[in-house]
Amino acid sequence: MDALAAFANGLAVALQPLHLGVMVAGVLIGVIAGALPGISFVNAMAIALPFTYMMSPLVAMMFLGGIYVGGVFGGSISSLLLNIPGDPDSLPSCWDGYPISQRDGPQRALSIAITASAVGGLFSALLLAFASPPFARFALTFDQPEFFAATVLGLVSVLAIAKGQLLMSLMSLFLGVAIGAIGSDPLYGVARLTFGFELLSSGIEFTVVMIGLFALGEVLDYASQRLRPDFGVRQKARMGILSLRDLWALRGSIGRGTGIGSVIGVVPGAGAAVGALVAYGIERQVNSRRDEFGTGVEDGLAAPEASKNATTGTALIPLLTLGIPGSAGAAIMLAALMLHGVQPGPALYTKDPGMLYAIFASFTLANVFMVIVSVGVTRFFGALMRADPAIICAFIAIFSVVGAFGVRNNIADVYLCLVFGVLGFYMRRFGFPAAPMVLGVILGPLAEGYLMTSMANYADDWTVFFTRPKSAFLLSLAGGFVVWALWPELRRLARRATDGRRN
Amino acid sequence: MARGVVGPATWPKAMLLCAAAAAALLALVRLLEASALRKPPATDDGTDYHEGRSIGAVALLLGYGIAIPLVGIAWSTPVFIAGWLLLGGIRKPLTVGLVSILGTIGVLYFFVKLSVMPLDRGKGAFEQATVALYRLLGIY
Fold first, then answer.
1. Could you write out the three-class secondary structure of A179-235?
2. Cβ-nearest to A500 among B8, B32, B62
3. CA angle at residue A39 from A393 to A375, to 5 degrees?
C-alpha cells in the first residue's frame, strides 16, 4: 500500500508540466535517434548527457529515461520501413517485421511493434516501481566489501556482451578502468598516470570518454565508409495501436517476450539486443507457426518488440539498488546520477524515495507517450530521411564538441573528447569494442574506492571479501561468470594449437 | 596518512597488468590462428573504408577542435560544417552555404542565448568579430 501511495505521488510529480515536457522531448529525441540508421539512442543519450548539467537530477533522469525508452523502440521504425535496423536490438524486428510490412503494409507492422513495445515497456516500468524497493532493502545490508564485489560483478558482466570478442573486450575493459584511474586516487589524493600533464591531474570525465567513443567515433566511421546506408526513403507510413482482438491474438508472444525481456533486463550488461534475440529465438521454438518464421509471422515481430522494451525498466533495478548498470543506456543514466552527485545504491531508497518514485512514474508514462510520439515521428520519417546523412553527422559532431566543452567549460575536455573520438573510430574499424571501455571508466573508480575503503576499514585484511558470505557469493558469481565466458575461448585456443601442430 | 597494503598505484598497476595479459593472450590466439590457417585472420567486419575520406574526416574534426580557442566557435563552426558536407559528397554551393550559415546561427542561439554556455569567442580580432556577430544576431 505504501508503494502504491508513493507511486501515486511520483505520478503527480511526473505529470507536472515541466517534467512531462522534458520526458516527452526525451522520448521524441530517442525515437528519432533510434530510427536513424547508424545513429543509436545510446549516442543520443551520450550527447544529451552534458546538457543535463543545467537540470535537476530528477529532470535529467526523466529526460534521459525518455530518450532510452523512445530510442529502444525507435530502431524498429527503420527496421520495418527500410529493412535496416536503426539499432542492433531492432535486428530481429527485420526478420518477420519487414515481410509483414511488405505483405500487409507498414501500418500493420508498425502497429504490432508499437503495441508490443508499449506492453513490454509498461510491465517493465511497473516491475521497476514495485520490485526494486524490496531488492534495495536487501542491498541495504551491504557494506563496502559487498559493494566492491557487486561492482566487480558489474565489470565482468561485460563478458556477456563480448560476442566472440572476449579477449578484446577484456582488454578494452581493463584499459577503461586504467583510464578511470587517471588523476588523484580516492583515498590519499596522490596523482597517478598523469605523465606530467596538468589537464590529466583532475582525472578524465567519463562523459567526455563516452561522447568521444560513442558519438564522434560513430560520425567518423560513417564519414569514412565508401558505401554508406542510403537514408533516401520516400515511404509514407501511418500507425496506430492494435485492436483488443488483435492484441488478444498475440497475447502469447507478447507475454513471453515481456517475461523474457524483464528477466534479461536485470542481468547486468545484457540489454535490449540480447533480450530481443533471446525472445525471438524462444518464440521460434515454442510457436505453433515456427516453421514459417522469417516469412512475416506476427508473433515473430511481437515477441522481440515486447522483449526489448521490457528490458528498459528492469535494467534500472541493478542500477538504482546496487549502482550496476544493466545496459549501455542504464550506464549513461548512472553517469547522469553521478554527475549530479547522486550515488545510486540502496541508501537512495531511504534518502530520496520521492525522487525515485517520480523516476519510476516517469518511466511508466514514457511508455505511454512513446506510442503517441512514435505515431507522429513515423509520419515525418520520410521527410527526416530525406536529409543527407552528412548534414546529420556534421551536427552530431558539433553537439558532441560543444557537449564535451560544457562538461567543465574547459577546452581541454574538447581535446580529450576528440582524442577519444579518433580512438573510438579506430576501435570500431578494427573490431575493438568500445562499450567495455566506457563501462570500465564509469565503474573502475567506484570499484577502486570500495576496495580501498574496505581495506582501510578492515585493517588491510583482504580475506574480508571471501569471509563475508554476501561478498564471497558475489565474487564467486563473478569468478564463475569469467570461467564460463573464457572456457569456450580456451577450448578453441587448445583446438587451434592442436590443429597447428598437425599442419 | 599511513598507507595500507593497497596504495594509490596498486589499482592502476593491476589493471594495466591485466590489460597486458589480455593483449598477450590475444596475440597468442592470433598467432595460433595464423599458423593453423596459414593466413592472417580477418580483423574487420568487411566494411569498405575510403582511406582519403577517413584521414580527411579525422583531420577536419581535429582541426575544428584546435581552431575553436583561436578563432572562436562562431567562425570555426561554419567552416567545419562546409568542410564536412563537402567531404560527405554534398557539392551544391547553395546547400553547403545555407546549411553552414543557418546551422551555425541555430547552434549559437541554442547554446549561447538559450543555454547561456560560455563558448569560446576566439582571440584578438576574432573575439571582437564574435562579439559583433552576437550583437548583430541579438544574442548579446
1. HHCCEECCCCCCEECCCCCHHHCCCCCHHHHHHHHHHHHHHHHHHHECCCCCCCCCC
2. B32
3. 115
SS3 readout for A141-152: CCCHHHHHHHHH
Interface of A with B in 421-480 (CB under 8 A): 421-422, 425, 429-431, 444, 448, 451-452, 455-456, 460, 462
Give the SS3 label for residue B49. Answer: strand
Owner of C-alpha cell 545555407: B98
**pLDDT recorded at residue A365:** 93
Cell of A163: 560476442
pLDDT at A221: 86
How many angstroms separate the CA atoms of A349 and A117, rounded?
28
Inter-chain CB proximity B88 and A405 less than 8 Å? no
Contact (Cβ atoms closer than 8 angstroms) between residue A286 and residue A94: no
For A156-206, write each residue's pLDDT tens digit: 866 765 656 788 888 999 999 999 999 888 888 888 888 888 778 888 888
ipTM: 0.89
Q: What is the largest CA-CA distance in chain A?
A: 71
Q: What is the pLDDT of residues A331-358, one digit of tens each?
A: 888 888 888 888 888 888 888 888 989 9
Between A112-126, A470-484, B2-16, the lowest mean confidence (pLDDT) is in B2-16
Report yes or no: A220 at the B interface, CB cutoff 8 Å. yes
The answer to whether the Cβ–Cβ distance between A425 and B58 falls below 8 Å is yes
Contacts with B72 from chain A: Cβ below 8 Å: none
Q: Could you give the count of Cα atoms lying within 13 Å of A93 in the half-sphere of its Cβ?
A: 40
* pLDDT (tens digit per residue) in B29-62: 888 777 766 555 555 555 678 888 899 999 999 9
Residues of A in contact with B65 (CB under 8 A): 401, 414-415, 417-418
Mean pLDDT of B70-89: 94
CA angle B29, B31, B35 (to 5 degrees): 115
Q: Does A192 touch chain B (CB under 8 A)?
A: yes
Beta carbons of A402 and B58 less than 8 Å apart: no
Q: Which of B13, B33, B35, B84 to probe by mutation at the A interface, max A CB count within 10 Å?
A: B84
